[in-house]
């Protein structure tokens, strides 16, 4: 009998079993960068936390963070293990934490647009030269970075050929009606609401941005590859239940209506976002815009 072979086989089985037990016993702390406060985090993600814990066999805990920078620091300090964040935030997380990609959270029809009014005399982006354009919150992927990149892609130099302002979108519409700004930058989901709130305005999209990369679930470098692989498998095998759990969030999570989990995401998928950072003069991707 080949005792060496049997001992090696037994050791391998024990090792695999130990890895599985370790993964099942592990606690994973999850942060979400665009939700502030434990109460808000629980309202949006308690259902998702519960289902993810059940399906993975691991204990998932929600960990509130006050802002994106705090989430980076917590991930580097191993105070959190997982973080759900947007595409603009991902490039900074990658730069500052080298976090591992777990799974993408798709957002159907997620893109930025440049919009004006019918009758304004603005028929294309070229007509905006020398005028003011109102964008959303500084650092917003779809209301700031995407529209400004659209302008750049179509030949304008933001800040030189056009003056960029950052204004609440409802205030921006009023400014556009007065002629104080020539166009606004918004995302696709904003337009129906703006049309309802401003029935006297007929909006006209003069430029549409590329579909934006997915929101993404990241794991810290301290999380083992075995656990990351197990989490990927959990999302792949329990997609329907986990999507339903995400959509239990009554407010912020409704942006994920129609979503799917994307297991095959890659860092290169976010290069267009890096281009946006370069356009606004932050090509190092080392700090969150607007923090």
From TrEMBL:
Highest taxon of the lineage: Bacteria
- What this protein is called in its record is PhnD/SsuA/transferrin family substrate-binding protein
Entry-linked InterPro entries: Solute-binding_3/MltF_N
Task: Write down the Gene3D superfamilies for this protein, in alphabetical order.
Answer: Periplasmic binding protein-like II
* Segment forming the signal sequence: 1-25
Q: What is the lineage of its organism?
A: Bacteria, Pseudomonadati, Pseudomonadota, Betaproteobacteria, Burkholderiales
Matching SMART domains, A to Z? Answer: PBPb
Presence of the UniProt keyword Signal in the record:
yes
Source species, please? Hydrogenophaga aromaticivorans
Q: Which SUPFAM superfamilies would you find in this protein's record?
A: Periplasmic binding protein-like II
Family to which this protein belongs: Belongs to the bacterial solute-binding protein SsuA/TauA family.
